Automatic annotation (TrEMBL):
Residues 182-243 are annotated as: Disordered. Residues 187-200 have a biased composition (Polar residues). Transmembrane segments: none annotated. The lineage of its organism: Bacteria, Bacillati, Actinomycetota, Actinomycetes, Kitasatosporales. GO terms for molecular function: methyltransferase activity. This is DNA cytosine methyltransferase.
């Protein structure tokens, strides 16, 4: 596994809106950084974190934390993670955007970043944030001196291999004068191309527009727009010493294709460069937090498709649904990635019927067996499904962050069931 060469290890990772700590496990898989503090107010999730991460201080409700006092009492964090609430951003929610009652917690996350000044910030939310809040996130980060890059990635894409779609937005932010590809101790002395050594170091070009060039690779820039661009067709300019002008450059860009709609900035690094007809597996519905307290076997989405609780009870022992949809290839693919077989999708209900099994959802999310569902934790089925539905697919997040940081793919290794 390739880890980001960030030093020093002290300070570790501070996790906000922690939930099941799946996002923190992904960050640790990529960076090697342990989580030293979590922030979770939900009683059930807090009980889980106390059992699974006893070394980490739980800060509780992030809206009540005294951030200056916390910063004064701990080393500067190397990382801060936040999968902040998506209820107001998601297509399945009220669509109020990032200013909503729940998703508005982003402002508190931004304030924590402003005070703690972590070297790296790892963010996660639903893909719909691109039209319901990304402008606010980018502006807030810029206002506190942080540059950012982001992408969307689906858990069900072949690069990850999960058996459900789970389209999510991931971002990495860092202080604009610090290059995350370099050791912390040398960052301030690094200069941008054309800048003298004594000048103030500036960030790598293109940071706020998406994905940066990987370390050691030259960044290819388009020609600067000129007044003459509007008076003629493609050509070269003598003032550019024989180089092409912008009119010529844009004619040489790749031809638009039907697949260009997939995942926005991730196309810049080739992760979605395959044709649309290469998707060869049927994907299960993605887990939701409401599958526990409100999920039922007959609930469907607006297109008439069953949610996960309804689809799970309609699968036979070959993973074929009652309508003939074969989920077997997707299940077997994820089994190969995780290195363990899928649990039974259902369990006996209180009235003798069958219902969605939390252990199956835990497996779908790529968590260690028993991480959320072990009986010793004493969590109700409803709490288990809520925690898992609010979480992130660990392999998906690790894949996205390693791509955003220009690293080889880093995914959690095979682990045994939690005792």
């Amino acid at each position: 596994m390739t880890h980001l060469p960030v030093v020093p290890p002290e300070g570790g990772n501070v996790s906000l809106c922690t939930g099941s700590a799946a996002l923190d496990q992904a960050v640790e898989a990529v960076t090697g950084l342990a989580t030293v503090a979590v922030a979770e107010r939900d009683p059930a999730a807090s009980r889980l974190l106390a059992a699974r991460m006893p070394h980490a201080l739980n800060l509780g409700d992030i809206t009540t934390v005294d951030w200056p006092a916390l910063a004064a009492g701990m080393p500067r964090p190397v990382a801060l993670t936040a999968g902040f609430p998506c209820q107001d951003i998601s297509n399945a929610g009220p669509r109020g955007g990032i200013a909503g009652d729940r998703s508005g917690l982003w402002k508190t996350v931004a304030h924590a970043v402003r005070v703690l000044r972590p070297r790296l910030v790892f963010l996660e939310n639903v893909a719909a944030i691109r039209s319901r809040g990304l402008d606010v996130v980018a502006a807030d980060l810029a206002a506190i001196g942080y540059d950012a890059r982001w992408m969307c990635l689906r858990a069900g894409d072949p690069e990850v291999g999960a058996c459900h779609r789970r389209d999510r937005w991931f971002a990495v932010a860092y202080p604009a004068a610090e290059n995350p590809h370099l050791a912390v101790g040398t960052q301030r002395g690094t200069t941008a191309p054309g800048q003298t050594q004594s000048g103030r170091a500036r960030t790598h070009a293109g940071g706020r527009s998406g994905v940066l060039a990987a370390p050691g690779e030259p960044l290819r820039l388009l020609p600067t727009p000129a007044a003459a661009d509007g008076t003629g067709g493609p050509g070269t300019s003598p003032k550019r010493r024989g180089g092409m002008n912008l009119r010529t450059a844009v004619t040489l860009l790749p031809t638009p294709a039907a697949r260009d709609w997939k995942s926005g900035a991730s196309n810049l690094i080739g992760t979605n460069s395959r044709p649309l007809n290469e998707v060869v597996v049927n994907l299960l519905p993605t887990p939701k937090a409401s599958d526990g307290p409100h999920g039922g076997p007959n609930q469907r989405d607006t297109a008439g498709n069953y949610y996960l609780p309804g689809q799970a009870v309609r699968l036979d022992d070959r993973w074929v649904a009652t309508n003939g949809t074969d989920y077997g290839p997707a299940i077997r693919r994820w089994e190969a990635v995780l290195g363990r077989p899928a649990p039974e999708p259902t369990e006996p209900g209180t009235k003798g019927n069958h219902r969605l099994a939390p252990a199956f959802v835990e497996w779908m999310m790529g968590a260690d067996a028993g991480w959320v569902t072990h009986p010793d934790l004493g969590l109700s089925r409803s709490d288990q499904l809520k925690i898992l539905g609010n979480g992130v697919v660990i392999h998906q997040a690790a894949r996205a962050y390693s791509l955003l940081l220009g690293l080889d793919q880093a995914t959690p290794g095979d682990t045994e069931a939690v005792a």
